[in-house]
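Case study.
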Amino acid sequence: MSHDTWNYQDALRRDGYRVTPQRERIMDLVCQAGMRLSAQQICEAARSGPPAMNDATVYRNLRFLTERKLLRAIEQDGRTCYVLGGPAASHHHLICRRCGDEIEIPDDATSELYARLERRYGFRVDDDHLVLHGHCRACLATP
Amino acid sequence: MSHDTWNYQDALRRDGYRVTPQRERIMDLVCQAGMRLSAQQICEAARSGPPAMNDATVYRNLRFLTERKLLRAIEQDGRTCYVLGGPAASHHHLICRRCGDEIEIPDDATSELYARLERRYGFRVDDDHLVLHGHCRACLATP
DNA sequence: GCCACTATTGCATGTAGTCGCAATAGATCC
DNA sequence: GGATCTATTGCGACTACATGCAATAGTGGC
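After joint prediction, the assembly is written out as follows.
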């Protein structure tokens, strides 16, 4: 998916935020990479590129863009990586504690649980990128 | 619950780890507090107390004790807090994004989901302290 | 009780990310 | 196009936590 086909700029302006060259650069970097980029990779690229920007600005904008769902943050052993967010289908992850393998599962896997929690506690969960840990089929089979 | 009624020392020794005064002090602090303590609170108390210990030692042991389930870590706006772990019943948390209220729910709330994930993907989840975010009944009612 | 083995500690230093504040620059209105 | 209003940036300092390495001290075997 490209962020060109998706008008995130107007969405920001509509909400009273500004579209700055710094924000566009970060979106471009994440999009062009085509893979998850770590905060440091983005900082490094952004320090030199035009416009040359400060690490604090990068971090602030990564948080900002993630909160507005334009990016999506993924924790990966202590560091944070980013991929394009936006209209992407939400989904959850299963991560194996042993081999580190990562399985994506559809977001409706949790809908039954969420519905039950709402019935029982009146609480409406909205986490759409759960990360669950455990052991995958292969690692369960080989102790 | 007290950690005296629960022989965590032998559990450590059995696994080839050592029971050091530093580790015992940290366990004592968390137990006597009777409430969740932040890493900094523990550092501060441990710096002066006998044995006087280094912050790095505290952090290393908090991680160590948490990995061995003798303590349990709770994230709280960017900081980590700790409570006694051990034989305590496991449970999950629902945290309201608006009022910050925290609801504890029994750990078997997720057993149906976990069973389904194992059937469908061969993946056995073992997270026993899930933290789910959303909105509580009161906040849903008052927009 | 003493020894040897190695897990653990203390210290200094490194890393990821945050924050306060003055200066800059998008967006809107005219 | 210019004035204005305030969101955003850059900078430097700061926080929470991690790590490499040499020194220390639990533990199990005798």
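Observations recorded in class. The beta strands of chain A are 37-38, 71-76, 79-84, 91-96, 102-106, 124-125, 131-135. The longest strand of chain A covers residues 71-76. We will return to this complex in the next lecture.
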